[in-house]
Specification:
By secondary structure, this protein is an alpha+beta fold. The chain has eight helices and seven strands; from the N terminus they run αααββββαβαβαβαα. Bound molecules: zinc ion. The site of zinc ion (ZN) has 6 residues, from loops.
């Protein structure tokens, strides 16, 4: 996307060559893991597991190499200059540290500057970025930065509220604990009352 883009972390949010996953290699790797944990990959219940995981990874990592900016280029001109909020977008991703799921909801807001985008495109943007190995903090920032850059919005704000299996089924084992991240850009960062309006529309106390 050239120099000076707003994504901050460069290639992680950007366009890389779309190759798809190598399902044969995934199957071999899963077989290796099953043997390494002392299982018998030939027993009935595990026979189809490498193939199923390869197929599943193809879906769960389908966002690798896709260009999220392409979703925002189909926006249209519109005079509306008030806040647009898409609440409770279901979110499921895999944390890149453990490849375990984290899941929850994303709330996305922006204030247009003459250009808006279809609501479904925002949900699709969240999904595309979630279908990559992720960390919640980066995912939150990427969504906000892409809205700013793609729509040249006056402001963008994102809150993600998620539960991480790497916290609830291993390690510190704190079931029910949730991780909340937020990113504020443009007028949401500059103007506390804009941010407060967003949070009150989400039903959250202004922080
Ligand atoms: Zn993790």
């Amino acid at each position: 996307m050239g120099k000076g883009n707003a994504r901050g972390d460069g290639a992680a949010a950007g366009k890389v060559a779309r190759r798809g996953v190598d399902k044969d290699a995934i199957q071999q790797a899963v077989l290796t893991i099953l043997r390494a944990i002392g299982e018998d990959p030939e027993r009935e219940g595990l026979l189809g597991t490498p193939r199923r995981i390869a197929k599943m990874y193809e879906e769960l990592f389908s966002g690798i190499g896709e260009d999220p900016m392409a979703l925002l280029t189909v926006g249209f001109e519109e005079k509306h200059k008030e806040m647009v909020i898409v609440k409770d977008i279901p979110l499921a991703s895999l944390c890149e540290h453990h490849l375990l799921p984290f899941h929850g909801v994303a709330h996305v807001a922006y204030i247009p500057n003459g250009r808006i985008v279809g609501i479904s495109k925002i949900a699709r943007l969240v999904e595309m970025l979630a279908h990559r190995p992720q960390v919640q903090e980066r995912l939150t920032s990427q969504i906000a930065d892409l809205l700013m850059e793609g729509l040249r919005a006056r402001g963008a704000a994102v809150v993600i509220d998620a539960e991480h299996f790497c916290m609830t089924m291993r390690g510190v084992k704190k079931p029910g604990s949730r991780v909340v991240t937020s990113a504020n850009r443009g007028i949401f960062r500059e103007n506390p009352s804009t941010r407060a309006e967003f949070l009150s529309l989400l039903g959250r106390p202004a922080g």
